[in-house]
Amino acid sequence: MKRKPLIIVRGGGDIATGAIHRLWSAGFLPVVLETGSPSAIRRQVSVCEAVYEGKTEVENMTAQRAENLPAALLLAEKNIVPVVVDPKGESIKELCPDVVVDAVLAKKNMGTAIDMAPLTIALGPGFRAGVDVRYVVETKRGHNLGRIIIRGCAFPNTGIPGSIEGYTSERVIYSPAEGVFMPTRQIGDVVGKGDVIAYVSEKGNKTEVRAGISGIIRGMLRDGFEVTKGFKSADIDPRISELENCFTISDKASCIGGSVLELVCAYANGGIV
User: Fold this and answer.
1) pLDDT (tens digit, 9 = 90+) per residue, 232-260?
2) Would you tell me how many other CB atoms lie within 10 Å of the CB of residue 221?
3) How far, in Å, CA of 193 to CA of 215, rounded?
4) What are the chain's domains?
5) Mutual angle of helices 251-268 and 14-25, in 10-degree steps
6) Which of 36, 190, 193, 212 is deepest in the core (most CB within 10 A)?
7) H or E stretch covering 227
8) Whole-model pTM?
9) How far apart are CA 233 and CA 132, in angstroms?
């Protein structure tokens, strides 16, 4: 049996976790690199939660924080996804992986280069396929979602969230002030338009964070997270009947993850470089 390729995924948010879960389900053992203070709001379906909690589970896949690379590789051998705090990707040079997937979704290149591994993949805008990385995967909802780009770039960031039942910007909540985020509601709670779902506290002053629409809180920042004004803090799904969606990988993340898996499988079978 051929050696499984060593895969590093930069980023452990909900979209990244879609790719990580597809790879893990297919028998690959990705190592995840994250920041020391991840800001994912869809925390129930993001392996980056392991940075805070030590361990987390997403759809029967366990992810665990590893304090160093030897510990990370031991976890991978046990079929546990290791999460290493390494925002600069310094582990990449040390591990010499076969595959590097940039799933940070920063809308710009944070330091991933085409020569970091034989196969380099980036998700979303900010990268040029064939220049910055080998391949780019489209992340914009629509006809081309998940499309593998061989030359060129993904669709530029519009700044407008994808539509759910006609709601776009209204369903995403941004911090109205700078300070410490203090939620009063939880992921999965049903809220009405205008309800207070959190406060932002700074120097004893509390600013209310209100729901823009009625629905289910699908994502929410952790209690105590330090935010700036305009920081993405919560996400509300207007489909109250779909509570389970808060705790499962989204269709978008799964689709993008499938494209990453396709490229890795092709590489493992000697099909692409």
Assistant:
1) 999 999 998 889 989 999 999 999 999 99
2) 23
3) 8
4) 7-158+251-268 (3.40.50), 169-238 (2.40.50.100)
5) 50
6) 212
7) strand 226-227
8) 0.94
9) 30
